UniProtKB/TrEMBL annotation:
Name this polypeptide is given: Transcriptional regulator, PadR-like family protein
PANTHER family assigned to the protein according to its UniProt record, in alphabetical order: TRANSCRIPTION REGULATOR, PADR-LIKE FAMILY, TRANSCRIPTIONAL REGULATOR YQJI
Domain Transcription regulator PadR N-terminal: start-end pairs: 26-91
A Pfam family it matches: PadR
Lineage, opening ranks: Archaea, Methanobacteriati, Methanobacteriota, Stenosarchaea group, Halobacteria
Length: 119
């Protein structure tokens, strides 16, 4: 999905670029595996190096669910699990593509990316 490609939510269409950095980070975390809310919270706190409060996390998760980027299911009566949808996967790829298109400006930078990927 390129920068111009969009994610559709019924009547509303947003591009991957419309997501906040916080929402993009949630999608990146869910790219690894489905998780419950507190596990996502811990991953975000590790990344940010500070507490992420519930009042920030869960409304953003709900927005991502409404936009069709994340699927929410019930693990038990108290715990929800969140999983990346195909549209969410495409949004992560679009963001990576956009960043890499700007970062990889020469062979040295391409080598840096290859090294990150273990190639």
């Amino acid at each position: 999905m390129s920068e111009a490609q969009s994610v559709t939510d019924g009547s509303q269409t947003r591009t991957a670029a419309d997501l906040t950095a916080f929402q993009q980070n949630i999608l990146a975390i869910l790219s690894e595996e489905p998780m419950y809310g507190l596990a996502i919270k811990r991953e975000l706190e590790s990344y940010y190096g500070s507490e992420v409060n519930h009042g920030r996390l869960y409304p953003n998760l709900d927005d991502l669910v409404e936009e069709g980027l994340v699927e929410k299911s019930e693990l038990d009566k108290r715990t929800n699990q969140y999983e990346l949808t195909e549209a969410g996967h495409d949004a992560v790829l679009a963001q990576l593509e956009w960043v890499l298109d700007r970062f990889v400006t020469d062979e040295a930078r391409a080598d840096e990316v290859r090294a990150l990927l273990g190639e």
